[in-house]
Amino acid sequence: xxxxxxxxxxxxxxxxxxxxxxxxxxxxxxxxxxxxxxxxxxxxxxxxxxxxxxxxxxxxxxxxxxxxxxxxxxxxxxxxxxxxxxxxxxxxxxxxxxxxxxxxxxxxxxxxxxxxxxxxxxxxxxxxxxxxxxxxxxxxxxxxxxxxxxxxxxxxxxxxxxxxxxxxxxxxxxxxxxxxxxxxxxxxxxxxxxxxxxxxxxxxxxxxxxxxxxxxxxxxxxxxxxxxxxxxxxxxxxxxxxxxxxxxxxxxxxxxxxxxxxxxxxxxxxxxxxxxxxxxxxxxxxxxxxxxxxxxxxxxxxxxxxxxxxxxxxxxxxx
Length: 319
What we know:
Blueprint: H1 3-6, H2 27-41, E1 46-51, H3 57-67, E2 73-79, H4 87-97, H5 107-123, E3 127-133, H6 141-151, E4 154-155, E5 158-159, E6 161-167, H7 170-175, H8 179-182, E7 185-191, H9 196-210, H10 219-229, H11 233-249, H12 257-266, H13 273-279, E8 282-284, E9 293-295, H14 306-314
Parallel strand pairs: 1-6, 1-7, 2-3, 3-6
Antiparallel strand pairs: 4-5, 8-9
């Protein structure tokens, strides 16, 4: 027997893997999806969604991709996995995602291929939309200029492609590398951490979908989860997953406050999730409460193997 059997569940409720059926359509997530879908449907050009690490940006990006009707949109999701990508690699990946066969290596030829494909999509009565996840990795002016150039591809009636950026708050600073592109942001959305009620509703939602017939956390436990996670979904998942194991080992019918506090302490989350949630990917620069997380960059940048990145992305994105 494991904790799933003990608590009467069919699958793990708090896995941090992006399982679409566990998507929690909170009020702010629903509003964010509505605003971003509006930007895509009306071909606004550029929309940006910002959220902290673990706030659910990737989940929302995949939800949006799945929600865009295939008869109306030629939609793709591109995950930026390294800050050292080149503009040419970016253009080729976008071209591949939108269905360009054998993208050229020479830029002008590649842009011609991409333009022809976008016109073809337009003539089919569809709208081309590319969702860019981990957009804070776009850290050079050259990359931003490429997006501005793509947004200039138009027919008399409308733009031929729209982009939706999903990223950490740093993306706002990156956009200023190319002020004309920053001015083209038509829709901005920010994902905030859950409040206490939303945290509880999120936990109930995940438990129900996993097969639990009752709430497994009492009110004091919910208080600890919310305080320790800072309302960040990824951290909530980690806390609850560990708590269910702890409860199973102690044969507890319900996870109570003291048990939850012990779990939070073991995970070193009792001082809040803000610093913990960012510690594995970012370092803070001095500056008190206004300090902004900056990517930790190696002192010496290695030459990228773009083929390896292509292979990785083939499993993460959908053309």
